[in-house]
Write a structure and sequence with these properties.
It is a single chain. By secondary structure, the protein is of the alpha+beta class. About 45% of the residues lie in helices and about 20% in strands. It has helices spanning about 10-30, 65-70, 75-80, 85, 95-105, 155-175, 195-200, 205-210, 215-220, 220-235, 285-330, 340-345, 350-360, 365-385, 400-415, 415-420, 445-465, 500-505, 520-535, and strands spanning about 45-50, 60, 110-115, 115-120, 125-135, 145-150, 180-185, 190-195, 245-250, 255-270, 275-285, 395-400, 430-435, 440, 470-480, 485-490, 535-540, 545-555. Strands 1, 2, 3, 4, 5 and 6 form a six-stranded antiparallel beta sheet that branches. Strands 8-7-11-10-9 form a five-stranded antiparallel beta sheet, sandwiched between helices. Strands 13-15-16-18-17 form a five-stranded mixed beta sheet, with helices on one face. Helix 17 (about 445-465) runs antiparallel to helix 19. The longest helix is centred in the middle third of the chain and has 47 residues, at about 285-330. The protein starts with 7 loop residues before the first helix and ends in a 5-residue tail after the last strand. Mean pLDDT is about 75; it is low at about 1-5 and about 25-45.
Length: about 550
């Protein structure tokens, strides 16, 4: 029976049956999208349409809600003003025509489903259509009509596209993240690592064989093992759904690498004991360093502001003390020939010469000189403290850092205070400067001050432990990954433990004896680099392995 001979009630009944079948198909299909929250079928996104097997596919019947799917009314389609092939997107029409032709030649084919194709609405919008088509044939087996149910799947295609983009993004992140994986048989201790895991600690898989859980433990920092075990036991007991921990591992060259360690228990044995665990290690050393620098910067700004405030309060009485000490010294000298001094001495029945002799015998002039020297020392400290809170508007011009560093070495070798405790000229200097380094905008004298502070501290540290031979390795290079020039000053002195290293830039922190250092040199250096030059300064050091100060300055200055 053709659609022309069917009653409307028969067509509607047939439509309901087809809707039921499609609903089943779509529910099955939805599982392939992992239960993503979008609807594929609803009353407004599905319509029945019947068209003749003639040029342009003229429409014989269509349900009223076709406008919700195609954007065209049933009247426009039934009247012939709009042909179905005119609705299909020009880029998809040849494929749809080819699919129809291919299905048509199969005499036993009664139904087919098109691959999704696009249609153009009257407004020019694009909608995605899924078309389930049944074939009607005459007595000879030739196709007379196509009877189809068409679905608007635009929302599904949009979500599919977003999911594809998200999968692509995640795949790119994972590929670039250099994640090391591990699989651990908890009962036997047998562990499988991937090559990236070995690279994180600087080895090849061949160098690590045989691999077991003891291999990982041998790399772990002793302080981190206890915390890791506590979390692991909680995970095994079901208190934590995911084992998640940050710890340090020893690299092949000796330095510590920070890793983000996470894993999940995959199975238990028949008695419920942990059996198999899988997880990842990701190198987060740089992230930890950046976090540490942010904390250090915030701390320095806070402490520096306090120090600057104290300096302002000290400055005024200090100036008065120094001025009075200078006046006192002048009034007690005979060669000053101040008339008021002579008159006062005569009125007291003595002479300036006698007064000066008394002062000399009692060491009073020496005491005044000591007051002046101490006051001047305090004045220098106050000046350094004030530098924490201000950005100087000194003239900035372009300079070559290799020349500034060489000048700092020259000054260190001739400074009188340095010679009192050690001979800087006996320290071996190894220069490793890249060629064709660009000149950068900076305050040359300030950068020179920073470099001199680091060289001075390093030389004094090496002298303290009698390092022989003492040496500095100086490196300057242009970083490939950033628009920065990198300076490294590495010594072979005693190095620092983690506690001292974390405080090395703090104001007034020093490991030197009282009277030798103020603990402000590196603090001032920190502010010169970070606040005045928008740079970065850091130090890498371990006990017995010297210290390596790293300074990074931008090639282009930002106002």
């Amino acid at each position: 029976m053709t659609d022309e001979n069917k009653t409307r009630s028969q067509l509607i009944k047939e439509l309901h049956e087809m809707r039921k079948r499609i609903a089943v198909m779509e529910r099955n299909n939805t599982k392939e999208y992992h239960n993503e929250s979008f609807e594929i079928i609803n009353e407004s996104s599905m319509s029945v349409i019947v068209w003749r097997n003639e040029e342009g596919w003229p429409v014989d019947f269509v349900t009223d809600n076709i406008i919700n799917v195609l954007g065209y009314s049933s009247e426009e389609l039934l009247s012939g003003r709009v042909r179905y092939d005119q609705i299909i997107h020009p880029e998809d029409l040849p494929r749809v025509q080819q699919e129809v032709a291919g299905f048509s030649v199969e005499k036993n084919r009664e139904r087919f489903i098109h691959k999704p194709y696009r249609i153009l609405t009257p407004k020019g919008d694009i909608r995605w259509i899924e078309d389930r088509t049944g074939i009607e044939r005459d007595e000879k087996g030739d196709i007379t009509r196509y009877r189809g149910i068409i679905l608007d799947i635009s929302e599904r295609k949009r979500v599919e596209s977003e999911l594809a983009d998200e999968r692509s993004r995640l795949a790119s992140i994972i590929e670039g993240a250099q994640v090391g994986t591990w699989e651990w048989n908890v009962q036997t201790g047998e562990t499988v690592f991937n090559e990236i895991w070995a690279q994180i600690v600087g080895y090849t898989l061949e160098e690590l064989a045989p691999v077991n859980i003891d291999t990982w433990i041998s790399f772990a920092h002793p302080e981190d093992i206890k915390g890791s075990d506590e979390l692991l036991n909680k995970h095994f007991a079901g208190e934590l759904s995911l084992y998640n921990y940050e710890c340090r591992m020893r690299h092949k060259d000796g330095h510590w690498v920070w890793v983000h360690d996470q894993g999940r228990l995959m199975s238990r044995d028949a008695e419920g004991a942990p059996l198999l665990m899988f997880g990842t290690h990701q190198d987060i050393t740089e992230r930890k360093r950046m976090e540490e620098m942010v904390i250090q910067n915030e701390k320095m700004l806070s402490v520096g502001g306090l120090a600057a405030g104290m300096a302002h309060e000290i400055n005024n009485p200090l100036a008065g003390m120094l001025q009075n000490a200078e006046v006192l010294s002048q009034r007690l000298k005979t060669d000053s020939n101040i008339p008021a001094n002579l008159k006062a001495a005569d009125a007291a029945g003595t002479t300036m010469k006698s007064i000066e002799q008394f002062m000399e015998d009692r060491g009073i002039q020496r005491m005044i000189r000591a007051i002046t020297e101490s006051g001047q020392r305090i004045s220098e400290i106050v000046t350094n403290m004030l530098s924490f809170a201000r950005k100087e508007e000194s003239v900035v011009s372009t300079h070559h850092l290799d020349k500034i560093l060489d000048k700092a070495i020259e000054l260190a070798a001739t400074d009188y205070d340095l010679k009192k405790t050690y001979d800087f000229k006996q320290i071996k200097i190894i220069r490793k400067y890249d060629e064709n380094l660009p000149a950068i905008p900076c305050q040359a004298t300030k950068i020179q001050q920073v470099l001199l502070n680091i060289l001075t501290n390093g030389a004094q540290a090496m002298q303290t432990v009698k390092t022989v031979p003492s040496r500095f390795i100086l490196r300057i290079r242009k970083e490939k990954s950033s628009d920065m020039i990198r300076i490294e000053i590495e010594d072979n002195g005693p190095g620092m433990d983690e506690k001292n290293r974390s405080k090395v830039f703090d104001p007034f922190f020093t490991t030197k004896p009282v009277g030798i250092g103020t603990g402000l040199g590196l603090s001032v250096s920190y502010f010169i680099i970070t606040e005045n030059h928008n740079g970065i300064i850091d130090v890498i050091s371990e006990p017995g392995k010297g210290a390596n100060f790293i300074i990074r300055l931008p090639v282009h200055r930002k106002n």
